[in-house]
Design a protein that fits this description.
Layout lengths: L22 E4 L2 E7 L6 E9 L2 E5 L6 H11 L4 E5 L5 H4 L2 H8 L2 E4 L1 H12 L7 H10 L3 H8 L18 E2 L5 E4 L2 E8 L6 E6 L4 E5 L21 H13 L7 E4 L5 E2 L1 H22 L10 H5 L8 H17 L4 E4 L5 E4 L2
Parallel strand pairs: 4-5, 5-6, 6-7, 11-12
Antiparallel strand pairs: 1-2, 2-3, 3-4, 8-9, 9-10, 10-11, 12-13, 14-15
Helix pairs in contact: 7-8, 8-10
Length: 343
């Protein structure tokens, strides 16, 4: 039976802390908000008090500014362990620095560590032939393609510190002790494979990374490294699975935006958001279209140059999900562009 509490999402805090200034949000847990140079202008990191030091959950980009903010926030405390929820650079960027500078133990999923370390070591001066072919297949705007073809692409190593060899693996449904609490590990998926979420045993705190964001949905993108992937399908299955664990009283500490309660409702919203987008896209594909031509039904707004790459990756992910589930067919035109059409 649904109660009024089940039907609400509430925020116990009304204001976020200033960048680099830790805020206590629960006994032994501090919130550190760090800047990002993009439309989503921040990432949330969490400091868990330990005897003789702290455990850090997620890290921000590797920049001089964020290193200085960490040094000030730690105020002499040693980072004993660093937990990385997933491999994206705003979450893993300083993990290697904490390992080298503090002697910290790194805990994450195997997929997150292998992916992050591979990307950190894979530095490119120009887009590879595989990347160019992928952009063309996705239907990248010709002007943007011509511009990016001759530019140095974003490299993981630009904002991720070198990662030493070695980590401690977190696995699905194990328990781990961090900050004087025991946590259940439950893996998410879709936004990033083997995305670590941590659920307090006997308490109400959930460290959700980007799997449980309030107000916004995380990017579900397909990239040249796995051009036939189905992150939308992975996301929907993970949300359904994790919804079975969620209760309205949980205090979710997310990777971006504000802490909140109301996780069952939020997971339902995240599922409905993508199901609605898929329905709109299927109707739009009454004529053959490339992923690059599908921004309007998916996003309903103009996509700027800074958002274009992520938008293209997400549009392709939704087109591919319709194809993988039999709701669309794919053809390849003479220029090598993938054209999707609902049957």
């Amino acid at each position: 039976m649904q109660t009024d509490q089940d039907a609400r999402i509430t925020q116990p805090l009304t204001e976020a802390p200033a960048f680099g200034v830790p805020l206590r949000v629960a006994e032994g847990i501090e919130w550190l908000r760090l800047p990002l140079p993009m439309a989503l202008d921040h990432v949330n990191c969490w400091i868990l008090e330990e005897p003789g030091g702290v455990t850090v959950v997620d890290t921000g980009f590797d920049t001089d500014r964020t290193r200085e903010m960490w040094e000030q926030a730690l105020n002499g405390r040693r980072v004993q362990r660093v937990v990385v929820t997933h491999h994206h650079p705003d979450h893993v960027g300083l993990a290697g620095w904490f390992q080298s500078a503090h002697g910290a133990e790194l805990l994450t999923s195997r997929t997150a560590w292998l992916t992050a370390r591979m990307l950190q070591l894979d530095e490119q001066d120009r887009p590879t032939p595989e990347m160019l072919a992928f952009w063309r297949a996705a239907g990248m705007d010709p002007e943007i393609f011509a511009e990016r073809e001759g530019q140095r692409p974003f490299n993981f190593a630009d904002v991720v510190a070198p990662m030493p060899l070695g980590f401690t693996r977190l696995t699905n449904e194990e328990m781990v002790e961090l900050g004087g609490r025991w946590w259940h590990v439950h893996m998410g998926d879709g936004h990033a494979p083997e995305h670590v979420t941590l659920w307090e045993e006997g308490g109400d705190i959930v460290l959700g990374g980007d799997q449980f964001l309030p107000a916004i949905s995380p990017n579900l993108g397909v990239h040249a490294s796995e051009p036939e992937a189905d992150p939308v399908g992975d996301w929907l299955m993970a949300c359904e699975r994790l919804r079975g664990l969620a209760t309205p009283d949980k205090l979710v500490l997310p990777g971006h935006k504000m802490p909140y309660r109301g996780l069952p409702l939020r997971l339902g919203q995240l599922i409905e958001n993508h199901e609605g987008a898929l329905d709109r896209l299927e109707r739009y594909l009454s004529e053959p279209r490339s992923a690059g031509a599908c921004f309007q039904p998916l996003f309903g707004r103009r996509i700027g140059a800074g958002e274009y790459g992520l938008a293209l990756a997400e549009a392709l992910a939704h087109c591919l999900h319709l194809m993988h589930t039999g709701r669309a067919r794919r053809e390849v035109d003479e220029a090598g562009v993938w054209l999707f059409r609902a049957p």
